[in-house]
Write a structure and sequence with these properties.
6 strands, Glutaredoxin, 5 helices, globular, 6-stranded mixed beta sheet, alpha/beta, about 170 residues
């Protein structure tokens, strides 16, 4: 009796089980905040650039909260769009770009890339990423002054019209 095919079949099944158990299920992934949800806060490990004057995230204004990383090419490609929005609307809206990386990783990156948003790193525990349920980058949230999610999506989909409407309210 040839046991080689049977052994290969058993190994294949075992490998499939290992892979299935290792891949996080939707239940294991954090629930991403949706429109209408209220954020429990923005937790800053350290402000690195363009920090709000009072050091607080909301300051009674709406917030554009951008989750990004130095290794994320789509994140970097969105910088010019976010910079243009910040140039136009920073008087009415607080722009915050937050990374889960360390200060030591982000600071040298900022020397080479212009970001006109407030730039911060998350807490060591990734608290803000967990609160917002962010596990895919880039991800942007538009929040009311009370922390209610008004919009969420890819940063390049955030429009000046959305911000104009919010600023007029």
């Amino acid at each position: 009796m040839n046991t080689k095919p049977q052994t290969l079949a058993l190994l294949s099944i075992a490998l499939l089980l290992i892979v299935c158990l290792a891949v996080p299920t939707q239940a294991q992934q954090p629930r991403t905040l949706s429109v209408g949800d209220t954020a429990k806060g923005i937790f800053i490990g350290a402000w690195l650039d363009n920090a709000p004057a009072s050091g607080e995230a909301f300051n009674g204004r709406p917030v554009v909260l951008e989750f990004w990383s130095t290794w994320c090419k789509p994140c970097i490609a969105a910088f010019p769009h976010l910079n243009a929005l910040a140039d136009t609307f920073s008087h009415a809206v607080q722009f915050i770009s937050i990374s889960q990386e360390t200060r030591r990783t982000v600071e040298p990156f900022l020397e080479k890339h212009e970001m006109r948003t407030a730039v911060a790193v998350d807490t060591e525990q990734g608290t803000t990423h967990k609160v917002f349920g962010v596990w895919v980058l880039p991800r942007t949230f538009l929040l009311s002054p009370e922390g209610v999610v008004l919009w969420t999506g890819h940063p390049t989909k955030l429009t000046g019209e959305m911000l104009r409407k919010l600023a007029a309210e």
